[in-house]
């Protein structure tokens, strides 16, 4: 039986919750100075690193009995039900958003194209009032698109890489990541048509670095691992945006190249028990639905604030209620939709 990494589950859930809060505040604050989670966009890079480690752990030893098509179907079965649901929710909230007035007037054909391509996870022309997003109906889907691409690269090439080759490749991709971060002043790109090429750069280093951590067994066992790794992750997220353009880019690159691998090594090499382990398991279970489904509701919330202009107390109260509702809703969706659909897909995939 494969080992389960409870701490990594907990960290993934923590990052998903912080991203949700960050996106809510991002739309209201508009500037780095007001949003307390200045660098929470790096959670995506943390997710990619987690993915590389977990993919290596789950599948590296199975290639003698598994084909590439089987691997890709397993990944599709695991990830795509929520991609579909997120696109449906995104379409409904886009069409029936009561707070936008005439800002989202668009033809049926454009909506249909965005919906069909969204279901397929393919980048689509940006809809009105959606900030140049490649996935207008569900913004975070851009990172799932990159996850699919890097999984394909792993299946065709990465799984066969020798350690020395992998080390050289990871080093090269770290250089590319650093150059990109310094050029833009941060690592926020990939979600927009204006910087879509940043997506492959952002996913390549962390994914293969995670794979390398697994293959070299670079694990660290310490006391109070979840507390310390959570604090380290939070420190990264709350460090203020550095005014010096290139310095902030170097900070982002250093977090992804140095800090996040350390967190993964500790999280994978240490253990927790009892109620803390159960809490970490819960956080891991809600992390994917929360991350992938929260953004349409973020749009609604931002449009409500913009249209109704509530006081700060009311806006904060509604935000807190929304966050709690999204966490509970993610758990419900996991149980009544995601897991049952995945089981059905697994059954049909196993049929001759």
TrEMBL record:
Pfam family membership, one: Acyl_transf_3
Keywords, in A-Z order: Acyltransferase, Membrane, Transferase, Transmembrane, Transmembrane helix
InterPro entries: Acyl_transf_3_dom (IPR002656), Acyltransferase_3 (IPR050879)
Endpoints of the signal sequence: none
Domain of life: Bacteria
Residue stretches making up the Acyltransferase domain: 8-334
GO molecular function: acyltransferase activity, transferring groups other than amino-acyl groups
Transmembrane segments: 7-25, 37-59, 79-96, 108-127, 166-184, 196-214, 226-243, 249-269, 276-294, 314-334
Protein name from the UniProt record: Acyltransferase 3
Organism encoding this protein: Pedobacter heparinus (strain ATCC 13125 / DSM 2366 / CIP 104194 / JCM 7457 / NBRC 12017 / NCIMB 9290 / NRRL B-14731 / HIM 762-3)
């Amino acid at each position: 039986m494969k080992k389960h990494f409870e701490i990594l589950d907990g960290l993934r859930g923590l990052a998903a919750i912080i991203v949700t809060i960050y996106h809510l505040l991002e739309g209201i604050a508009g500037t780095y100075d007001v949003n307390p989670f200045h660098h929470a966009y790096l959670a995506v890079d943390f997710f990619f690193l987690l993915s590389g480690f977990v993919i290596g752990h789950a599948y590296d030893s199975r290639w003698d009995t598994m084909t590439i098509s089987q691997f890709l179907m397993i990944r599709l079965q695991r990830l795509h039900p929520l991609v579909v649901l997120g696109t449906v929710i995104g379409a409904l909230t886009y069409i029936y958003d009561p707070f936008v007035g005439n800002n989202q007037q668009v033809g049926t054909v454009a909506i249909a194209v965005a919906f069909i391509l969204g279901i397929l996870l393919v980048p689509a022309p940006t809809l009105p009032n959606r900030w140049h997003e490649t996935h207008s109906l569900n913004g975070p889907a851009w990172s799932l698109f990159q996850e699919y691409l890097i999984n394909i690269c792993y299946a065709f090439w990465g799984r066969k890489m020798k350690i020395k080759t992998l080390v050289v490749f990871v080093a090269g991709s770290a250089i590319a990541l650093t150059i990109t971060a310094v050029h833009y002043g941060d690592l926020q790109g990939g979600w927009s048509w204006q910087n879509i090429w940043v997506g492959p750069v952002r996913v390549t280093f962390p994914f293969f670095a995670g794979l390398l951590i697994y293959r070299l067994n670079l694990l660290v066992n310490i006391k109070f691992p979840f507390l310390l790794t959570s604090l380290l992750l939070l420190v990264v997220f709350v460090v203020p945006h550095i005014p010096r353009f290139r310095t902030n880019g170097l900070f982002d690159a250093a977090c992804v190249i140095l800090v996040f691998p350390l967190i993964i090594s500790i999280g994978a090499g240490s253990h927790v028990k009892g109620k803390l382990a159960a809490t970490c398991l819960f956080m891991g279970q809600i992390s994917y639905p929360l991350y992938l489904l929260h953004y349409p509701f973020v749009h609604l919330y931002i449009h409500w604030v913009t249209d109704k202009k509530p006081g700060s107390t009311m806006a904060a109260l509604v935000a807190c209620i929304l966050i709690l509702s999204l966490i509970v809703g993610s758990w419900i969706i996991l149980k009544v939709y995601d897991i049952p659909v995945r089981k059905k897909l697994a059954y049909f995939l196993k049929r001759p």
